[in-house]
Amino acid sequence: MYPKPDKPVEDMEPTCPDTNGAMPSCAPLAVPYVPFQRRGAQKYDHSAALENGTLFPGLNLPFKLKAKAANVPMTPLGELQALEFVLVELGLYLDTHADDAQAMELYRQYAALEKEGRARYEQMYGPVTQPAAAQSKTWSWLSDPWPWNYQEGGDK
Questions:
Q1: Which residue of 52, 109, 127, 135 has the fewest C-beta atoms within 10 A of its own C-beta?
Q2: Assigned domain for 1 exists
């Protein structure tokens, strides 16, 4: 089905050199490229991670049409979203670096912050998920106002 190469793959010259985490200029536009993540890599704080779309500065590739996430207000909902985003990012990292104890400890810390933030948010505004609505005496999942109906500062 595919043509056989003239020489073994390990003897072939790379068509695009590794540039230590930066996207090489010869990388084709339609081919995904993800730099290798090293242990102990720098990390953004949770709000900067949400703003940049990654927890790791080394994975923050310069896209021309980057959304202006910096305009997301750090309201209680924005704070909760940022914490949840960091948990997803750290979870993905730990999938490939399961023995990184420092990352695991950071995951535990962010999980505790997210749990506290979620409890605080739900106390103020109601359940964030349907399963959280089970903690109420009555079904309050579809009760208005929804979190996005509030303006920054808490007023409707």
A1: 135
A2: no
